Amino acid sequence: MPTQLNNDDGALLQAEADIRARLEGLDLDFAALLAVSNVYRAATAIRNRMERDVLSAAGLSWGGFTILFVLWIWGPLEAHALAEECGLAKGTLTGMVGTLEGRGLVERVRLVGDRRRVRVDLSEEGRRLIADVFPRFNSAESKVVAGLDGDEIGYLSRLLRLVTATADETTELVRPRGPVDAGG
Amino acid sequence: MPTQLNNDDGALLQAEADIRARLEGLDLDFAALLAVSNVYRAATAIRNRMERDVLSAAGLSWGGFTILFVLWIWGPLEAHALAEECGLAKGTLTGMVGTLEGRGLVERVRLVGDRRRVRVDLSEEGRRLIADVFPRFNSAESKVVAGLDGDEIGYLSRLLRLVTATADETTELVRPRGPVDAGG
DNA sequence: TCTCAATCGTTCGGCACCGAATGATATCGT
DNA sequence: ACGATATCATTCGGTGCCGAACGATTGAGA
Fold this sequence. Notes:
Chain A is mainly alpha-helical.
């Protein structure tokens, strides 16, 4: 539990202190700078770690894994919904689903009522693969956050959800924010 | 400041509840799952926001901006150090520095003492550009974390630094962790 | 001095990823 | 019924980005 933080100096990385020193004169929001940079660095570090330790052995990219996982959790999805859920552009999704389809991990079905649409679903093999890979993935996730205790992990998630919701706002990001707890 | 969190249910997104429900039987670390996924989602949301609102107008990609910023803060750097600092593979850096050099934003100089090495530095135009763009970038960063108060922002950074340090460990991620506050 | 190994940056092949343009299909107005 | 419009997914051109292979340069040892 955080009681006093005094993050004025104490817990700063050397690199962060250097940044502060270099930008001393300017009227900047250092805390925001550090927060954003730390979010990005953490994401990159996690992704690299997962790809190296878990995904590469299964021949899966981060994106491919995400698609499989989403389909596993949500069941069959139309392309636009799948793209949205995976945080990918539609065009990107088409290509990656193509790759997965080529490997026999997912299947595409044109809808009968509306032949513009396509429903994507796991194949049996895809289901086996994600069911096999995900527990290992999750165990690596667990290790990655093992430096935090349970409260801290939950708190981290909460703060990040807030940031994501704000960044996802379609507006120019100036208005005062509405209800904040469950943006999805 | 977090006092009670009870993130058992209360603050969960619908999607997160769905995941929990779908994976009910399995022996998984849900908190870690959510934390990792929230880190990644936040990073993506922030990056997209920045590219759209700030960087695209300057004709800069996230990676290009990062390179310029790092050189701005640290001064001239050799390629390997620059890659390391930007979190990019050496090969990636070569290409991106090439792009920036083509636009006249950075310069490459082979070292006199050791002709294998190359020092990269901002050009005058590059310096002008980053000095112009960064304040706007920072102001967008500020807005992105505006949903959090000062303590929360600092705390978020601290937690993320911990996660990054763990994920960056070169080991297989099993040993007990050494000193934890400033992984630098 | 002449290899041999180490250490640079670069090149190369390949996938991920985006955004705009495209093509196919459905729907609405008349 | 039929053309205009909207709505899908896909295609296409271009970068970002990685990892392995490569070429150039340096330093160490015989």
